[in-house]
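ok trying this again, last paste got cut off
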Amino acid sequence: MRVREATPDDRAAVANVVDGAVLAVDDDVLARSLDVGETLVAVSDDTDRVLGALVLDGNRIAAVAVRRRRRGQGIGSALVEAAAERRERLTAEFDADVRPFYESLGFEINVVEGECERCRGRLDCE
């Protein structure tokens, strides 16, 4: 598995992975992220099949998703680490059930007031 910058040709595969993880990314955000090289994909070494995707909107992680059968194999972590190499800071808003994932990557986590099921995270990438 390797991580590379996605191209506009990867749009359908990225959308498929994101949809499969029951995440929503605004179409305009995805298009812009692909156009400016802010979307990363984890692909299989042999077939270049997209196994996971991370969509950035500036410093904000709009979505990070991995195909269901490939979860728990470090793919999501590799995507976030690759994004951290490209930014001074990353932020994310996510459901509380994925809080352990972000904590394992060193994100500082805050619960969104009034929304006990949502969290915000920040990672200073130095």
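PB: full thing came through this time. The two ends are 25 Å apart (CA to CA).
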